[in-house]
Amino acid sequence: MLKLIGACGCLALLPGTAWAQERAYCPDRPGIGTPACTTAPGRVSLEVGIGDWSVDSTADERQDVFVVGDALLRYGIADHAEVQLGWTMLGFARTRDHLTGAVDHRSGTGDVSVALRRNLVNPDGSGLSLAVMPYATLPVGREPFGDGDWSAGLKIPASYELSQAWSVVATTSFDAAVDEDGSGRHFVFDEVVGAQFKLSEAVSVTAEYEFTLDRDPASHHTENVGGLSLAWQPADDLQLDLGTNLALDHRARDAQVYLGVSRRF
């Protein structure tokens, strides 16, 4: 009986293993939006931001933030589904007051995020791919890397291959975000659209535009951001990336530059 159970177990695992090996690696990094593809069953993807620098300057102050180890762990639980766990390991912030010249330094960790991505069409990201992704953040970090309270939301990522080289991508998000004062939540709508071009089998470049409608009680406003990123996969289970995001209006963060690595196991 034990031998029979073991043999059946091996047979059940074989198709999943073969499919996992055949599915192309599709990391969340880089870029602003979220891909609709999911990790193959039983496979793990670890995606880490090696370095992330951003700057935001106003009439009163300038803030520089540097983050190391912005990690995302993804695990395929079914052919069309995966679970995710994210955490910002360490961040440094420098804020300079333009009027007094005073400089404030802070360091700390960020919040933890948990998510479930359920793909509805083509989990490998080919052709037309569509998914739904509910998520939540747990307030374990400290300002300016943590929000100070829990938040939740829903993302709807989609992609469509126009040809072997060109694809269009989009991510629609509805969020219950933490208020600026750290007490309560408010509605945020976010839309990301972009185009991806494959320079070769291993190299791709993505251009994106992001529009955000933020209904924070302290300041109702919109933000517009443009992004450009480059991804290189030197091996089937490895990707290196870099990118930059630039503000298209005065409300968005001025600039961001980042690079990272993704590895599938």
TrEMBL record:
Transmembrane segments: none annotated. Pfam families: Phenol_MetA_deg. Residues 1-20 form the signal peptide. Keywords: Signal. InterPro entries: FApF (IPR025737), OMP/PagP_B-barrel (IPR011250). This is Opacity protein-like surface antigen. It comes from Novosphingobium chloroacetimidivorans.
